[in-house]
Amino acid sequence: VQLVESGGGLVQAGGSLRLSCAASGSINSIGAMDWYRQAPGKRRELVAKVTSGDVTTYVDSVKGRFTISRDNAKNTVYLQMNSLKPEDTAVYYCHAELLVRYIWSYYWGQGTQVTVSA
Asked: Is residue 50 helix, strand or coil?
């Protein structure tokens, strides 16, 4: 079982990026899916969450700019990031609650770097 992120990169302030995270393996079901980020010297923080019922929540600093969504048929969660700011620079991690062999556990992706230049 693994979570594989893609879509990070370098962008100028005001630009956009779309992150994707695909879950693969012997997965029976998927619960909540989240995006976290960690900037150098800072703690990892929850950026956005989408539940299995498509309820979404966001950290205040990204409200109105980021949108989390999921495609259950593809076991994939997305993070559309618009109006990016230099302070959004961080490694972004996918995190998901997965039912694997009928046991619920949390899994992390390997992270993808997002760099926003001023």
From this structure: strand
Task: Please calculate the CA angle 88-94-100 and round it to the nearest 5 degrees.
Answer: 170
Q: Counting every residue, how long is the chain?
A: 118
Kind of pairing, strands 66-71 and 9-12? Answer: unpaired
Please write the tens of the pLDDT for every residue from 27-64: 999 999 999 999 999 999 999 999 999 999 999 999 99
CA distances from 55 to 40, 49, 50, 77 (A): 30, 8, 5, 13
Counting Cβ atoms within 10 Å, is residue 93 exposed (0-12), middle (13-18) or buried (19+)? buried
pLDDT in the model for residue 100: 95
Q: CB-based contacts of 74: which residues, under 8 Å, 6+ apart?
A: 22
Identity of the amino acid at 69? S
- Residue at 33: amino acid letter: M
The SS3 call for residue 85 is: coil
Q: Can you tell me whether residue 3 is helix, strand or coil?
A: strand
